[in-house]
Amino acid sequence: MKTFVVGAGSDLGVHIDGAHLGPVQLMNDLKGFYKGESTSFVQDENIIKSRNLSDRRKNEYEIDKYNTKLYQAILEKVKENYFPITIGGDHSIAVASALANAKVHENIGIIWIDAHTDFNTFDTTVSGNIHGLPLAAITGYKNHELRYFFDGNTIQPSKAVVIGARSIDDWEQDNIRYSGITVFTTEDIKQKGVEAVVEEAFRIAGEKTKGIHISYDLDVIDPEIAPGVSIPEFDGITEEEAMKINETIIKHIDQVTSYDLVEFNPLRDEGRKTEQIAINLLAQIIRAAENKGKFTPKQY
Fold first, then answer.
1. Residue 295's pLDDT band (boundaries 50, 70, 90)?
2. Nearest-10 Cα torsion for 130, 133, 137, 140
3. What is the CATH number of domain 6-45+54-293?
4. Given the residues 60, 64, 90, 116, the one annotated as active site
5. Is 90 a residue of the active site?
6. I need a labelling partner for 77 at 20 to 30 A (CA). Which of 204, 211, 223, 234 fits?
7. Phi then psi for 232, rounded to 5 degrees?
8. CA-to-CA distance for 163 and 188, rounded, in angstroms?
9. Which one of 131, 172, 213, 241 is the catalytic residue?
10. Rounded to whole angstroms, what are the CA distances from 239 to 7, 213, 255, 277?
């Protein structure tokens, strides 16, 4: 299948700088083996980025403007039957990537691999960092301000699954409870095993849907192993578990319509450890997407 790599260089969704540089670095790394189509979107350098922790709507207008352009670019390629791989950037860029796929495929599920559930609203967010709101926006749970550009059906909460969560705000837990999304914590992964959790996620997100969007946040990995993220959370998964998640995704590649890898912050990396993990994940998924439809899942 034709792949399309999109660099989504924005860190407007978080008060910490650096994630906007992640796509540039990773796309440069990809040049050694990726020969398919690609494009990049960089945030406006003239933006005076809000970092005020008391501001619950930090950079809302700028994020909407950025995501509108990103959404239109991905939407065009999805309509042309490309498999989009979006490299962030902070996780707010997933509003554009996930909804572009939802617009074309109409009825899809979503698997959100993240230390956070990103299910806050403007009323419940403590930090005001919009990268903590995208999954709620994608599944239609309030946050309509983050999807003004979108006129399709949002993803059903019952088809949304989070894997690896271990940092959930108190009010955010109420949002999750009322919405009906499924959450597997890091502890669930330790107890049940990676493969069992991911298989269950595919069962939920794939039931009576026309595809699944994958959104993979590098902060799901323990920061001792992958320090290059903006908001690290300790007691995360191992590198082996992170790769196993990807390998299990690849077993189901014929169900997957699109893929994000987000939150790599090179300014916080140490010895390029996080960068190498990110490249390995991307190399796996690019190869699998390019071979999509050519092999049966058991051959991966």
1. very low
2. -150
3. 3.40.800.10
4. 116
5. no
6. 204
7. -75, 145
8. 9
9. 131
10. 23, 22, 24, 8
Q: Annotated catalytic residue: which of 260, 263, 269, 275?
A: 263
Concerning whether 116 is annotated as a catalytic residue, the answer is yes
Catalytic residue among 114, 222, 260, 269: 114
- pTM score of the predicted model: 0.97
Q: Can 114 be counted among the known catalytic residues? A: yes
**DSSP 8-state secondary structure symbol assigned to residue 185:** E
Instruction: Choose, from 91, 213, 222, 269, the residue flagged as catalytic.
Output: 91
* CA 11/CA 15 separation, integer angstroms: 8
91: annotated active-site residue: yes
Three-class DSSP category at 32: coil
Q: What angle do helix axes 60-79 and 94-105 make, rounded to 10 degrees?
A: 40
- Extents of the domains making up the chain: 6-45+54-293
Q: What is the phi-psi region of residue 118: left when phi exceeds 0, alpha when psi lies from -120 to 50, beta otherwise?
A: left
Please confirm, yes or no, whether 263 is among the known catalytic residues.
yes
* 53 pLDDT above the threshold of 90: no
How far, rounded to the nearest angstrom, does the alpha carbon of residue 25 sit from its chain's CA centroid? 18
Q: Per-residue pLDDT for 293 more than 80?
A: no
Which of these is catalytic: 11, 64, 219, 260? 219
Which ranges of the chain would DSSP assign to H, the alpha helix? 22-30, 60-79, 94-105, 134-138, 170-179, 186-192, 194-206, 239-251, 273-290
Q: Identify the CA nearest to 236 among candidates 223, 248, 249.
A: 223
